[in-house]
Amino acid sequence: NVEDSKQFFKRKIDFLTKQIEKIQPALQEKHGMKQAVIEVMNVKIQQLQQNQQSAPMIGPAKA
C-alpha cells in the first residue's frame, strides 16, 4: 500500500544519505589530489614550453 511505499523510500533515502556521507571525505581528498596533479602538470608544461622557446633548434629544421 501507499504507507509501505513511503516507508520503503524513506529507508532508501536514509541509506543513500549515509552512503553519500561515507564517500564524501574520500571524494574530497581525491579532488584535492587531482587539483595538485593538474597544478604540477601545468608547471611542467610551462617549463617545457620555456625550454623549447629558449633553446636553439638542434639539427636541420624539418618542413
UniProtKB/TrEMBL annotation:
Source domain of life is Eukaryota
Q: Which InterPro entries match?
A: Prefoldin (IPR009053)
Q: Which Gene3D superfamilies match?
A: 1.10.287.370
Q: What is this protein called?
A: Prefoldin subunit 5
